[in-house]
Amino acid sequence: MSKIRRLAKLVCLLILGTECRPRRVLRGLPSGYRIRVSPAEHLSYLLGTAELHLQKAIVKFVHRGDTVYDVGANLGYVALSLSKRVGPSGKVAAFEPVPQNLRLLRENIESNQLANIEVFDVAASDKGGEAIIRIPENLSMASLIWHTENRACINHPTRTIAIDDLVQAGSLASPTFVKIDVEGAEALVLRGMRRTIVSAQPVLYIECSDSGREETWRLLSDCGYECRSAVTNERVLSFDAYRHSDFLWIPSGQSWSARRSGSVEA
Questions:
Q1: b vs e for 71-103, b when ≥16 Cβ sit within 10 Å of the residue's Cβ?
Q2: Taking the model in full, what pTM does it have?
Q3: 50-251, what's its fold?
């Protein structure tokens, strides 16, 4: 972080304080909503600078009335963004298994009186059952895959579900857009929603990890998807270039240039 940015953050913290409490989001997609955060940890949430590439993707691909999934919802910043975008006629399914995050997620939904977000307090995976999610000090890094050698982690038992099962049972509508940020477990999520991907052809925004990249690339390529960098919008043509970043997976039959676009709302 540059000296100027450090100074700017210090000034913001002097003005806003560091207490974790409900605060109004000043800019970005969820501007005007309230979210319980400490500016010392999540100043970017309040200033609208968090997840900028994801915010741009939401503006481009998510529209009023859509059904969208937030898989790995954390404390709800992205879910709030999606909720505002789809509007009262749309639906957001937010999946979050970590108890501490889940409490804040529900509080942030309730404090904004958002009826279009449904919370699933489970880990999306390849099948229904139970698993251990390992929770380090940084709650956003909790994972079904990582931290096997980290004795400082809390091993939390959680229920797992396959999204295909929820859709088939009629408990969840098919999506038009899915964001997946699950700390190494993205291949499990995709394996458990393959039928839904094939039938609904949603746009997918995925954080790529080393542990999930090979199966993700193979599965989505087999489903007829093309990959683009969420940062540059350039097409990713080789598996070697698919690593350590955020990516958009687009159904091959859909035109990238024909998609409606816009700017992130202030």
A1: bbbbbbbbbbbbbbbbeeebbbbbbbbbeebbe
A2: 0.92
A3: Rossmann fold (3.40.50)
